[in-house]
Amino acid sequence: MRIRLVVLLPLLALAGGGAFMATNTNGVDMTRSAQHFLGQLSAEQRAIAQLDFETPERFGWHFIPKDQRKGIQLKDLHAAQREAAHQLLRTALSEVGYGKATKIMALERILQELEKSRTGGALRDAERYFFTVFGEPTEQSRWGLSVEGHHLSLNFVVDRGQIVSSTPSFLGSNPAIFKNEVVPELPVGTRVLAKEEQLAFDLLNALSAEQRSVAVIADQAPREIRAAGEVRPPQEPAVGLPVPRMSAEQQEILHQLVLAYLENMPADVQQTRTEEIHRAGTDNVHFAWAGAPQPGIGHYYRVQGPTFLIEFVNTQPDSAGNPANHIHCVWRDLRGDFGQQTAGK
Q1: What pLDDT digit, counting tens, does each position of 98-108 carry?
Q2: From CA 73, how far away is CA 67, in angstroms rounded?
Q3: Which residues touch 283 (CB under 8 Å, ≥6 apart)?
Q4: Whose CA is closest to 191, among 173, 169, 204?
Q5: How far apart are CA 87 and CA 2, in angstroms?
Q6: Strands (E), 183-233
Q7: What residue spans define the domains of the chain?
Q8: Rounded to 5 degrees, what are φ and ψ at 53?
Q9: What are φ and ψ of residue 44, in 5° steps?
Q10: 101, CA 20 to 30 Å: which among 18, 87, 208, 290?
Q11: DSSP state of 62
Q12: pLDDT tens for each residue of 232-280
């Protein structure tokens, strides 16, 4: 039994059984957007926003609030420069992914309002998101991009007009579900990462008692995703319930769950990732759960195959004190993030 991890574009490699790499037009678009973005900056700004491709800073990533980050932040850009930065982000993601990313940025305004009475806490600022270009973006070069701030870390490598790496790709949401009216454009009930959470509950609830005994790896959820901020993703073998032990209906829910992460990327990147999952063997994909089987109490899951790892955790309270209402989730390349596998490192 095989999971139908199918995206919008046809997976031609599956029909022929051979290696296939999707033509990646977004890499060209990203390159041109990066050139335009850099061209909008002053010499002083460009020295901050553009670093050498080989700098160790390219491998530094994290989603926690930080006093200092690499790159130039949106708040230090004028309107045209800010628009160029957003256009670069838009070309790196799908419209769905761009929508999630910008909502995550907007959440900082909610946190600022909810935490306004606190002193000495983390800095909350919807414009405190940093853009860094590594190397010289041309259609014949290898270059990188980082877009990062609180609850957002997106990392790309483009090689001769092809997106060859898009990990680690981290998204977070505090609150996970808006339970307090704070700003009109984000009403009560809004869920930025709704599918990433709800579909996992749907899959867990669809399992039989016997299947759950395999899928559930711990009664208590871990506090955080593994290897947060580390260059290498976790290398432990996959655990939990493998695809061959799922019914067709359960596999379809897993397909939708994986698609919730795939759809953040442009269609051609989705297709490449999906083809790699199939080539590595969808029978090797596992679903694992830890923690409570219902919302409001700490819960965690992972979906893992030979080429990829999804991790999701919701254990922390939100800024209004609602328990387990604070999501961290990530997609990582088990062969090497930051394009390391494609460079043969």
Answers
A1: 999 999 999 99
A2: 12
A3: 1, 2, 242, 243, 244
A4: 173
A5: 38
A6: 216-218
A7: 12-333
A8: -60, -30
A9: -65, -40
A10: 290
A11: -
A12: 999 999 999 999 999 999 999 999 999 999 999 999 899 999 999 999 9
